[in-house]
From TrEMBL, chain A:
Domain ABC transmembrane type-1: 112-321
Intracellular or extracellular location(s): Cell membrane
Principal subcellular localisation of the protein: membrane
Family under the similarity heading: Belongs to the binding-protein-dependent transport system permease family.
Membrane-spanning parts: 9-27, 116-139, 151-178, 202-221, 257-277, 306-328
The keyword ATP-binding is annotated on this UniProt entry: no
Protein name: ABC transporter permease
GO cellular component: a single term: plasma membrane
Keywords on record: Cell membrane, Membrane, Transmembrane, Transmembrane helix, Transport
Membrane topology, as annotated: Multi-pass membrane protein
From TrEMBL, chain B:
Protein family per UniProt: Belongs to the ABC transporter superfamily.
Keyword Membrane: yes
UniProt cross-references to SUPFAM superfamilies, sorted A to Z: P-loop containing nucleoside triphosphate hydrolases
Designated name of the protein: ABC transporter ATP-binding protein
Membrane topology: Peripheral membrane protein
UniProt entry keywords in alphabetical sequence: ATP-binding, Cell membrane, Membrane, Nucleotide-binding, Transport
The organism's taxonomic lineage, starting at the top: Bacteria, Pseudomonadati, Pseudomonadota, Alphaproteobacteria, Rhodobacterales
Gene Ontology terms, MF aspect: ATP binding; ATP hydrolysis activity
Subcellular location: Cell inner membrane
Domain spans labelled ABC transporter: 12-260
A UniProt-annotated Pfam family: ABC_tran
CC per GO annotation: plasma membrane
Length: 335, 334
């Protein structure tokens, strides 16, 4: 397993280099200028100076290599310096956002927690709802419960979050007034009161995203359970006189979880990607909102860096899913 | 095996029906048989004759719905298994009645170790703790002829060959020292040499442990070698039943006779085509009112259409104890 992991990590390096180049070129070749949001009253020579100041006048390969150096050397070492008080890369230029002139990673550090709290909670809630529903739907296939579960999943699948989110706002915020319509990014949890307020403002975005997540995962869980329910080993377990609970929750579930865990692991990078629409709908100032803002402003370093971070996460969680697969299924050994 | 001993298992008038979209399928029709202590009863018949369904009905192993055991009595000792309810039936399965299935490649759970799968029924039925169960599981693995049992407990099923997996299945079935072992075509999925090994193993275990065995197969050659008594099934009912020697020496039912003719012979003229029984076994969509074999029977006559034959004794022993047959025709003439 260790050799497998190391081999995969080594293989990830050329993959990520190619991805970074593709992302960089794609974003760079897209039409648009970093001056798009600068007022037209600014004279051309000043504009030219501003572009030079940003380094945007350099040839694309120079900017690419510089970005690589910044991403893989300066940024990690800045973090290192920050932790241990050293000054290895002090004064060297970090990846700067063209839009705000502040380091991209500082912005990410501010935005990511918002996203992780809201989208991450929604993912967890989605999983916790989905697994029991999937298991019981499969155990009682075509029962009333299963039909309701299927309907619920269909709704979660097919209704876009901008609709379900708006609907939830109308019902729970406008009509019932239980939750606020807007997510307050500035709220700091210091005591019980503010914690309750945080839970309340998270409720609607978490419900919106959780429904969509639960729909997908419950369907995977259900079909995986159904695949295993008719296997011969289940009959063997029954023939041994095992309790139905043991048969279903030990023998069948353990086998059914293998593909589902993989699906869940592969979905985790999307948490970091944020939920662009939902974040915008509820005013969660997270990473998805940051990405949209950067795209509008032609903030190339920000877009390139974010896109590349997503690529790294996807490669990483693919590896994690493979490793989990090997851990969960004794028939799979990578060495 | 004393003739007068009380049967360990006494099945009477068992009827099992599958409810499907296309209507009901009567898979088991009034099957009666008994099993004496230490006896090996062979059950033969082609695919779809109701052998497996009968045995699975006994201990509630059929999924319900669609299966429904509609009538009958299954006495195990002094309890009727059809009446004791699902919880009590769980206590019987694996403890009093062991089951070995056809395909050892898929009958073991791939994600649990062989050891934990043998230990499960021990802890469930015998009240053993882990350590005791592990010790007993080691003994069981050794008993079914798996060398280095202690180490093998930690292995997963995929690390075992088909024959070894079937040995593990047998160890699981025998774990709680059952009164009855039901083996549902335990050698069909194995190649011939492994088949012989498993048969030897069962013979050997039977001598050591003395449980009664029901051996389902469509291989009459196997039956001839190990069974005490044979029950031939067709269309979900028992068509002939006799001590093994009598059945092979003097088959009475046209179906049994035809089955015996299908066994390829190692001697005699080569190149002759194997005998077959033309046609398909019937799918019983209603309770049979005529002989289910009539369409394929060389001896069928008017009465076979009009009346489903009851089992009748061929010798002077009562039906179920000696040689009996369910046929209107007899070799001596009607």
């Amino acid at each position: 397993m260790l050799t497998f992991t190391l081999r995969r990590l080594l293989l990830a390096i050329p993959i990520l280099l190619v991805i970074s180049l593709v992302i960089f070129l794609l974003v760079d070749l897209a039409p648009g200028s970093p001056m798009a949001e600068i007022p037209l009253t600014v004279p051309p020579d000043v504009r030219q100076k501003m572009i030079e100041a940003l380094g945007a006048d350099q040839p694309v390969f120079v900017r690419y290599l510089l970005w690589l150096k910044q991403f893989f050397w300066i940024e990690p070492m800045t973090l290192y310096d920050g932790w241990f008080g050293t000054s290895i890369v002090e004064g060297q230029q970090r990846i700067l956002s063209w839009q705000s002139r502040s380091p991209v990673f500082t912005i990410i550090g501010q935005r990511l927690p918002q996203t992780l709290i809201v989208v991450g909670t929604a993912y967890l809630v989605g999983i916790m709802i989905a697994l029991p529903i999937g298991i019981y739907s499969a155990y009682r296939q075509y029962s009333f419960f299963d039909q309701v579960g299927t309907l619920f999943a269909m709704i979660g699948f097919s209704v876009p979050t901008f609709f379900s989110g708006t609907l939830l706002i109308i019902i729970f915020a406008v009509w019932l007034g239980w939750f606020p319509t807007k997510y307050d990014t500035m709220l700091e949890v210091t005591d019980w009161q503010s914690f309750l307020q945080q839970v309340k403002q998270m409720a609607l975005p978490v419900m919106t995203l959780g429904l969509a997540n639960a729909a997908t995962i419950s369907r995977y869980m259900r079909s995986s359970m159904l695949d295993n329910m008719t296997m011969d080993y289940v009959r063997t377990a029954r023939a041994k006189g095992m309790d139905e609970k043991v048969v279903v929750l030990r023998h069948v579930l353990r086998n059914s979880l293998i593909p589902v865990v993989t699906v869940i692991a592969l979905g985790i990078p999307s948490i970091f990607g944020g939920a662009i629409i939902t974040e915008n709908l509820f005013g969660v100032n997270g990473i998805g909102a940051a990405l949209i803002g950067a795209i509008h402003a032609n903030d190339l370093p920000m877009v390139q860096t974010l896109a590349f971070i997503f690529a790294v996460l996807i490669v990483l969680f693919n590896l994690i899913a493979d490793i989990l697969y090997g851990l969960l299924d004794p028939r799979i050994r990578y060495d | 095996m004393p003739d007068g001993a009380l049967p360990v298992l006494d099945v009477r008038g068992l009827k099992t029906v599958f409810r499907t979209r296309g209507g009901e399928v009567h898979a088991v029709n009034s099957v009666s048989f008994m099993l004496r202590p230490g006896e090996l009863l062979g059950v033969v018949g082609e695919s779809g004759s109701g052998k497996s369904v009968t045995m699975m009905s006994l201990i509630g192993l059929l999924p319900s719905p669609p299966a429904e055991v509609r009538a009958g009595q299954v006495m195990l000792g002094d309890r009727d298994l059809l009446k004791i309810g699902p919880r009590a039936l769980q206590d019987v399965r694996g403890a009093k009645v062991g089951f070995v299935f056809q395909d050892p490649m898929t009958s073991l759970n791939p994600v649990f170790t062989v050891g934990s799968q043998i230990m499960e029924p021990l802890m469930r039925h015998m009240g053993m703790n882990r350590a005791e169960a592990r010790k007993r599981a080691t003994e069981l693995l050794a008993l079914v002829g798996i060398p280095d049992a202690q180490k093998r407990l930690k292995a997963y099923p995929h690390q075992f060959s088909g024959g070894m997996r079937q040995r593990v299945m047998i160890a699981i079935a025998l774990a709680c020292d059952p009164d009855v072992l039901i083996a549902d075509e335990p050698t069909t999925a194995l190649d011939v040499t492994i088949q012989a090994q498993i048969i030897e193993l069962v013979k050997d275990l039977r001598q050591k442990l003395g449980m009664a065995i029901i051996w389902i197969t469509h291989d009459l050659g196997v039956i001839a070698g190990i069974a005490d008594r044979v029950m031939v099934m067709y269309g979900g009912q028992v068509v002939e039943q006799a001590p093994v020697a009598e059945l092979f020496a003097d088959p009475r039912h046209p179906y049994t006779r035809a089955l015996l003719k299908t066994i390829p012979s190692l001697t005699g003229e080569r190149g002759a085509r194997l005998q077959v029984i033309e046609g398909q076994p019937p799918i019983m969509t209603a309770e049979p009112v005529a002989c289910p074999f009539r369409a394929r029977c060389a001896h069928a006559f008017a009465r076979c259409e009009a009346e489903n034959p009851q089992r009748r004794a061929v010798d002077d022993r009562p039906v179920g104890l000696g040689h009996d047959v369910a046929c209107h025709w007899s070799p001596e003439g009607v």
